[in-house]
Amino acid sequence: MNKQPLTLLASYVAGLLFSLGLAVSGMTDPARVVGFLDVAGNWDPTLMFVLGGAVITTFIGYRFVLKQPAPMLAGRFALPSRRDLDTKLLGGAALFGVGWGLSGYCPGPAIASLGGASIPLLAMLATMVLGWLIARRIA
C-alpha cells in the first residue's frame, strides 16, 4: 500500500492543528512574546503556560507512541542520536533566541501569521531564509 498520500494528509492535519493552536493561544501575536521577555516591565506569562502545555502533551505522547513497534506511516522512528553540544548548536540557538526576542516571532507562528502579513513579519521571514541559506553554505 502506498502510504505517501496518507503521510501528506497527516502532515497537513498536524500543521493545521499546530497553527490553530498557535492562533487560539495568541502566540501569533509578537507582542505576547515580547511581553514574556519583559520581566522588569509589563510581564505576560502566557507563553510560559503555552510551552508548559506543549511539554506536558509531548511528555505523555512520547511515552505512548514510543511503545509502538514503528510509526503508523513510516518504517521506523527517526529520533535524534547525537547528544553532544557543539559550537554550531549553541551559536545557532543563541541566534535563534536573539531573532525571536527582537522580532517576537519564531518560525511556526511567523508562518501561521502569513494570512495577515505585515512588513515586520515579511522582514523576519526574509532574514530567516537568508540565515538558513548562509548556514547551509558554511555548514
Describe the secondary-structure layout.
Elements: H1 4-25, H2 30-37, H3 46-65, H4 87-103, H5 107-112, H6 119-138
User: Helix fraction?
Assistant: 55-70%
Helix segment tally: 6
From the spread of the alpha carbons, the general shape counts as: globular
Enumerate the spans where pLDDT stays under 50 for 5 or more consecutive residues: none
Q: In sequence order, what are the helices and strands, one letter per element?
A: HHHHHH
Into which percentage range does the β-strand content fall?
under 5%
Instruction: Give me the secondary-structure category.
Output: mainly alpha
How many discrete domains? 1
Q: Give the CA-CA distance, first to last residue.
A: 38 Å
The overall average pLDDT, rounded, is: 90
Q: Largest sheet, described in full?
A: none
Total strand count, please?
0
Keywords: Membrane, Transmembrane, Transmembrane helix
Pfam family, one: DUF6691
Protein name: YeeE/YedE family protein
InterPro entries: DUF6691 (IPR046513)
Verbal overview:
The protein is mainly alpha-helical and 139 residues long. The protein has one domain (4-138). It contains six helices and no strands. Helix 2 crosses helix 4. The model has no long low-confidence stretch (mean pLDDT 90).
Descriptive labels:
139 residues; mainly alpha; 0% strand
Could you write a compact summary of the structure shown?
This protein is mainly alpha-helical and 139 residues long. The chain has 6 helices and no strands.
